[in-house]
């Protein structure tokens, strides 16, 4: 028995580590191809479909110029603190949000006009001052270090990982993947439960669920298998036979099995996408984020042939680490987010699934409200968007922070101390996906530290 059990344990460890390669960043192409493949099973048509789409803004989005104070006293305080980074008030009139909070009014960045329309239509709302926490934390507790805090605050890699997994860099599962774990048995084809169009992210890795990774063009093929190798079909057949043949060593056997799944999954995805009618909704083909979300829309359109009832998706855009050139570069990044999210929502409406798809933004952290001269530095809490037909939009969730430095919401330089934890955001989304209160700690291990587990998005 020992002779048989040791290889089995090794095989499981190999699978676990393979799915976690490049946990918070980007792994080598071979890892992306092999680690994200699920077994190809017979597809069954879903009867109750829902999908959750994470849009990650890598680098740390600047909250101060995304949701901008608009009432005159708050704007004046903002402009005084931000100095040359502040957005001129007259540029905010078209994106001012009518909802007042405690006598204060906010505006979206001028580049977010399409998201303003979704806000007005009640399809998008703003989660205020959300960030990584272990438990609800006051400023006094933070200063006294009297409660546990997220590890390595203000570090890109670690805070990306904590946002996505509730653990620092090196984590092997994320809450999107753990969410996928709960839905594997309900999907006719488990391969396509967690799909990443952005490369690799720990958010999408589960204990059983692995992220199936695609490009903006679709499934990533093994070229020598899907088309004649050196112009010869016989060579292609020989290659397929060689890389999928049964092996006696457990690692070689596992590699052959995963490769076979990859080939099978690629065939299913390619055939499913090829059978789709052309979509009327247009996406900006010059934008990576738009192209990623266009592929998500196509995969959702193919949900019946893929055999899925619940899915988790991940897309991303980088470039938000703007210590310099914030005024010049941040508007372009927000324009890309604005256009991509608006097109994606329109696509869900075209497909008739707008009430079954919820999209949310996330990022490493927010940034300082203070200027460093040409940009802002690493922060903590930030504001994020929740979008979808089921969302009770046109409103804020959470607590609007003061516009101040060294104020009641600030740990220094306008770095917001989060008043809502990522676990609360994740729990609200997971509950909408169908996760029971009993199973929530499986997805978000720290949710037991919070009394409020539903932020009211739906």
Automatic annotation (TrEMBL):
Top-level taxon = Bacteria
Q: Which PROSITE patterns match?
A: TAT
Give one Pfam family. DUF1501
Q: Which InterPro entries match?
A: DUF1501, TAT_signal
Q: Which PANTHER family match?
A: BLL7424 PROTEIN (PTHR43737), DUF1501 DOMAIN-CONTAINING PROTEIN (PTHR43737:SF1)
**Record-given protein name:** Tat pathway signal protein
């Amino acid at each position: 028995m020992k002779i048989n059990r040791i290889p089995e344990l090794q095989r499981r460890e190999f699978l676990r580590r393979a799915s976690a390669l490049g946990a918070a960043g980007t792994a080598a192409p071979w890892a992306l191809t092999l680690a994200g493949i699920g077994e190809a099973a017979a597809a069954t048509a879903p009867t109750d479909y829902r999908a959750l789409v994470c849009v990650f803004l890598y680098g740390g989005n600047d909250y101060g110029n995304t949701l901008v104070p608009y009432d005159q006293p708050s704007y004046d305080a903002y402009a005084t603190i931000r100095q040359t980074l502040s957005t001129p008030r007259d540029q905010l009139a078209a994106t001012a949000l009518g909802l007042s909070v405690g006598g204060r009014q906010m505006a979206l960045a001028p580049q977010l006009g399409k998201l303003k329309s979704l806000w007005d239509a009640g399809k998008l709302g703003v989660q205020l001052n959300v960030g990584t926490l272990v438990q609800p934390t006051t400023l006094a507790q933070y200063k006294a270090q009297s409660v546990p805090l997220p590890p390595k605050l203000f570090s890109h890699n670690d805070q990306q990982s904590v946002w996505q997994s509730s653990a620092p860099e090196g984590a092997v599962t994320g809450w999107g993947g753990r969410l996928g774990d709960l839905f594997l048995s309900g999907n006719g084809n488990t391969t396509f439960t967690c799909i990443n169009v952005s490369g690799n992210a720990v958010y999408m890795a589960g204990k059983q669920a692995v992220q199936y990774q695609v490009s903006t063009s679709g499934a990533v093929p093994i070229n020598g298998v899907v088309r004649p190798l050196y112009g010869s079909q016989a060579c292609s057949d020989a290659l397929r036979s060689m890389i999928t043949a049964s092996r006696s060593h457990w690692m070689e056997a596992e590699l052959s099995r995963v490769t076979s799944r990859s080939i099978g999954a690629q065939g299913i995805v390619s055939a499913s996408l090829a059978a789709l009618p052309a979509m009327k909704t247009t996406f900006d083909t010059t934008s990576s984020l738009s192209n990623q979300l266009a592929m998500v829309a196509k995969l959702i359109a193919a949900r019946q042939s893929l055999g899925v009832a619940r899915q988790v998706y991940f897309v991303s855009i980088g470039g938000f680490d703007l210590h310099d050139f914030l005024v010049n570069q941040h508007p372009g990044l927000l324009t890309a987010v604005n256009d991509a999210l608006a097109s994606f929502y329109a696509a869900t409406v075209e497909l008739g699934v707008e009430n079954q798809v919820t999209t949310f933004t996330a990022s490493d952290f927010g940034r300082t409200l203070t200027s460093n001269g040409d940009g802002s530095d690493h922060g903590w809490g930030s504001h994020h968007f929740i979008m979808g037909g089921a969302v009770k939009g046109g409103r804020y969730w959470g607590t609007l922070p003061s516009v101040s430095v060294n104020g009641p919401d600030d740990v220094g330089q306008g770095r917001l101390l989060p008043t809502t934890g990522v676990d609360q955001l994740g729990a609200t989304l997971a509950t909408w996906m169908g996760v029971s209160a009993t199973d929530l700690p499986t997805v978000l291990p720290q949710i037991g530290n919070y009394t409020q587990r539903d932020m009211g998005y739906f």
